[in-house]
Amino acid sequence: MTQLVPEAAAAEPEGTVKIRIEGLKKSFGDLVVLDGIDTTISKGEVVCVIGPSGSGKSTFLRCLNKLEDITAGKVTVDGFDLTDRRVDLDKVRQHIGMVFQHFNLFPHMTVIDNVTLAPLLTKKMDKAAAEKRAMELLGQVGLAEKANVKPATLSGGQKQRVAIARALAMNPSIMLFDEATSALDPEMVGDVLQVLRDLAEGGMTMVVVTHEMGFAREVASRVIFMADGNIVEDDTPSQVFDSPKHPRLQEFLSKVL
Amino acid sequence: MRAESASGEGIAGAIRSPQRLIAAAVALLIGLFGAAMLTPARAAADGETYVVATDITFAPFEFQDVDGKFVGIDIDLIHEIAANQKFNITIKPLGFDAALQAVQANQADGVIAGMSITDERKKVFDFSDPYFESGVQMAVLDSNQDIKSYADLKGKRVAVKNGTEGAEFAQSIKDKYGFQIVSFADSASMFEEVKTGNSVAIFEDYPVLNYGIEQGNGFKTVTPKEKGSSYGFAVNKGRNAELLAKFNAGLKELKDSGRYDEIMEKYLGEGASEADNSFFGLLSSTFPFLMAGLKMTLILTVVSIAIALVLGIIFGLCRVSRSIILRAIGTTYVDIFRGTPLLVQAFFIYFGIPTALGFQMTALTAGIITLSLNAGAYMTEIVRGGIQSVDKGQMEAARSLGIGYLPTMRKVILPQAVRTMIPSYVNQFVITLKDTSILSVIGIAELTQTGRLIIARNYQSFTMWLIIGIIYFIVIMALTKLSDRLEKRMVK
Fold first, then answer.
1. What is the number of alpha carbons within 13 Å of residue B369 lying toward its C-beta?
2. Residues of chain A with C-beta less than 8 angstroms from the C-beta of B422
């Protein structure tokens, strides 16, 4: 299934810094949600972000493509400083796919139109080529036969796989997953995680906010544990899950495992 | 009649000078889509066409006959004088107040509307020689045996028409005879007031009373007429002196030739009309005019609501914008047009702006601009509500794909917003359709105005308003049903 990952993304050398986060702070009014985050995410890494609810994981993820305004600090993606007003955010976002907890498919369009909309609008791709690529991607996520239905007729798991295909249609080099399986019925989770696994194996750079500890342990190259707006631990899955150092992490794992 | 110029001059006067700033601001808006429709100010010269404004419902001086043609003493006189003096005229039936304002705004070159020559009016108009000697008279219902003199009015109510000499005369004697005055905007309502028994008598110029009585309106006169003032043709102060001179010369020739007396005899002489005033009789005799009026109503509605939709989308996008300046623009627009009455907007756009900026526009243009801007303000709120009803995640998903803000609006947000907007949009359509009736004040011959014209001729207000109400009802019900179907199909 390496076809899932765009060639350009796969071709970049391992170890290139894709995202650099420096002193990232985010507050909503008086409420401080991110209190100075520093880390880097390199090409090919699969970084799973775990932590209790309210720890700031989703906000952190949404700062990486600037869906949230950044209060202080700097986020640099592929060398573009997102806090610099001169940077064309649309252009940067075209290289960062994002998948949401609630799918956010466009309900007034068919599945294939959902997938081709962004390539047609932003890349001036011709319709036939865009649809060919869309059908490939839908085939990869196992939904080719659903191309011409409206999203309302799909199950949650199917919707999320369409959403992943939609994000991949832009040939991104980074994928962000915001609790992509949290809104799914348990029997749907497996299909979606399988797609993520395929992507990871293909070398896609991924940041995955998740509650699926098993998935994190198996697929992640690095696990970040967040609490109270800070990164508390940042290590390999085996270190994080088998010998947690920080009491907050120990407490968290004792509850979820 | 119409000695007190407060209503006529007052509105135009108030608009004229102090509000140029607002005029300029609104004109800017209008400039968006109005520029092409405006006609430049004209300089009238020999042999050229003059625009003459007049009242619409002042039989026998001006009224529509059964064929929908404007006739009456004033109309015949001005046509004959024009022919005699070899110039062309375009008659603009606007209503009395509006006719005076049109001349002051230079939207018309002159006004002939049974207009009394008074010192007050001489300050703002130049008058011709008098062409008619009038006088106020009292009228009561035929069946009324109690009122035989002014003294019998004690403790009763009396109906008058705003700004008329009848009103002024009633005012001057009301304390002496101890009666109350109720004012109305048009003659038909004044007559109706007495017919329903709310008031017992009316004061009006005698030729008007006599004409109505001959049409069988059920009134009679019981007192002699008061000595009255003279009617004159008027132009804006200091303008169109040559038109005034031609009028005077033509009037003299008509009087000398005896043609003047023939016109007077035609309208003031005996000869009551025989007409079928039953519901179906009136319906069939007035149907073609009502349909023409309805057509105008629908044209106004459809064109205005289409423009309003465009304005609504533009300003609605402003309202949900992240830019504080754009939001302020959207809010200001909505506040201005929701915060002022449509009637005031119509007067301001039709009379105020052309006066302040020195150009002319047709009543239809002004009407469409007014309705569009007004409905546009409500559409703005409908569009805003529609956009805000779309889940925030839709915007985020599209933006995260790298689609720009406006393309996202166009392809993702608005198509979904439209679904929730449809019921409100249809509602606004119906409101705008009904609001067109307000434009009758600037003389647009839509359905309501058509009704007023017909009633001014035949005095059958109850039946005519019933017919007109039924027409509005049928059209609006049909549209509502149609939109219900449309809605069901779109939501599928």
1. 28
2. none
Residue B35 has which token pair?
């520029």
B132-157 tens-digit pLDDT: 888 889 999 988 888 888 989 998 99
| CB-CB under 8 Å, B402 with A102 | no
Q: Give how far Cα A120 sits from Cα of A3, A114, B50, B156, Å.
A: 21, 11, 59, 79
Question: Vertex B302, ends B298 and B306: CA angle to 5°?
Answer: 170
What's the pLDDT band for A7 if we cut at 50, 70, 90? low
Amino acid, single-letter form, for residue B429: F
ipTM of the complex model: 0.91
What's the predicted TM-score (pTM) here? 0.70
Cross-chain CB nearest to B401 (options A107, A108, A118): A118
With CB atoms and an 8 Å threshold, state whether A166 touches B401. yes
Q: What is the pLDDT of residues A188-212, one digit of tens each?
A: 888 889 999 999 998 899 999 999 8
Chain A, nearest residue to B411 by Cα: A117
Q: What's at B171, amino acid-wise?
A: Q
- In chain B, the residue whose alpha carbon lies closest to the alpha carbon of A99 is B397
Query: HEC profile for A136-156?
Result: HHHHHCCCHHHCCCCHHHCCH
CB B126 within 8 A of CB B234: yes
Residue B110 in tokens: 């002159």
- Percent of residues, chain A, with pLDDT higher than 70: 96
Sign of CA dihedral A238, A242, A246, A249: positive
Distance CA B350, CA A23 (A): 61
Closest chain A residue to B391 measured between Cα atoms?
A104
Check residues B239 and B189 and name the one with the higher pLDDT: B239
Which pLDDT score is estimated for B18? 40
Using CA atoms, how far apart are residues B95 and B113, in angstroms rounded to an integer?
9
- Which of B404, B412, B419 lies closest to A106 in CB terms? B412
Q: Which residues of B touch A (CB under 8 A)?
A: 391, 393-394, 396-404, 407, 411-412, 415-416, 419
- Amino acid making up residue B268: L
Q: How many inter-chain contacts (A to B, CB under 8 Å) are there? A: 64
| pLDDT exceeds 80 at position B290 | yes
CA atoms of A219 and A234, how far apart (whole Å): 15
| Phi, psi (deg, nearest 5) at residue B403 | -80, 135
Res A121 pLDDT > 60: yes
Return the residue of A nearest to B415 by Cα: A108
On chain A, the residues whose CB falls within 8 A of the CB of B404 are 90, 122
